[in-house]
């Protein structure tokens, strides 16, 4: 379910050069194809937790996967950038419902001995889905046209519905929570929690970097001297799969040394990767993208750990606030990175991302003192 869900989020990224040409728009404008979805995800993430708490995890997951078919089909008929963005925004409203519902379902229904393994499998699936969506779209455009990519997404969402029907038995431990005043009290408490607020700032910067890099590198790879098509560009996103490796491999060190150490290592790795992307040879560029992706995924693992360690209650709402900031960073990056690319090309984007990584490192060091460090 994680893989099938996250196919939707970044699938058009490998299509951005083609969409920019077809709609005759610049980098900042075409970036809104990604930003419209992440903006909706950011805005709806806090409310998604409230809905899942009230209606039930399984019901919400089934409903969201079923409804995701509709905007995918609408996107196949889009003839303007505005129409495509409207369909993408609708997708973004539905994706957080599955995200929060599945996580809460596992926490409540999975046997304690299997919870960590199941949650890791789900998170790994989201990473694989992020890559597969980009690859699927690139191959679909290479074989026909970009509208075909969204027809395939409609099909994969039907598969997601089937996976939820088979893989989510009816809840046994779920208790409906329909207390809006209690949710408001928890929200105010979270907003007065400095560690959580600073963690949200780190999350904003993390996804800002990831989306800035992978939105604009598609435009760089489509241009001279590389002149790659959508299919080969989709294959470059294989570096994204490193997240499926780096997250479980670094988990023991994160648990032992804490999120501050992990964030510091992530920043250094990301800066090294971004520096390599300034080189012209394609192998060095791809290696730099791989290192930058590893840095971002390690930083994300550190931030998610910090979220849980900075609160004692209201975890669903705290996760919703974090996702609000996290995907808000993606929405801002979709436009700002495009403006930077239009202004001074890839060098400007790399410099922008380096500054964002250094800022994230400074914010984390200030906000995460004493979190998760074991003697």
From TrEMBL:
InterPro entries: MFS (IPR011701), MFS_dom (IPR020846), MFS_trans_sf (IPR036259), Sugar_transporter_CS (IPR005829). GO terms for molecular function: transmembrane transporter activity. It holds the Pfam family MFS_1. One of its GO terms (cellular component) is plasma membrane. It is a multi-pass membrane protein. The chain crosses the membrane at residues 30-52, 64-83, 89-107, 119-140, 146-166, 187-213, 233-254, 261-279, 285-307, 319-340, 346-364. PROSITE patterns: MFS, SUGAR_TRANSPORT_1. The keyword Translocase does not apply. Keywords: Cell membrane, Membrane, Transmembrane, Transmembrane helix, Transport. Coiled coil: none annotated. Residues 1-375 form the Major facilitator superfamily (MFS) profile domain. The keyword GTP-binding does not apply. It is found in: Cell membrane. Belongs to the major facilitator superfamily. This is MFS transporter. It comes from Deinococcus irradiatisoli.
